[in-house]
Please model this.
Amino acid sequence: QVQPVESGGGLVQPGGSLRLSCAASGFTLDYYAIGWFRQAPGREREGVSCITIADGDTYYAKSVKGRFRISRDNAKNTVDLQMNSLKPEDTAVYYCAAGRSRPDWYGSDWCHYMHYGSWGQGTQVTVSS
Model:
């Protein structure tokens, strides 16, 4: 079982930047995509950004498009999420997950958490002045 491990969360002021990193050895063998998800208290977990391992297809939630960038390094088995222009509403626990998901299988839902079965422990991101 692949166990992703997140790092890079923390406290940042509005307008600042953070870079999250997900390390997951072996995911290239069993999974097709890696995603970043977040969950704020009282809210449903949402897909923030996903990337396919083989082709590098990407998905971004509308709320983060233009501010966040996902990237992968298959040699290092890492997927990073660069978060810029952070807003207080970005505050949440961010999770990395591996999934058997592809755009041609699930269309616009390919970054939905239901398709991702191996989850990290999460890292807190707090955007506050």
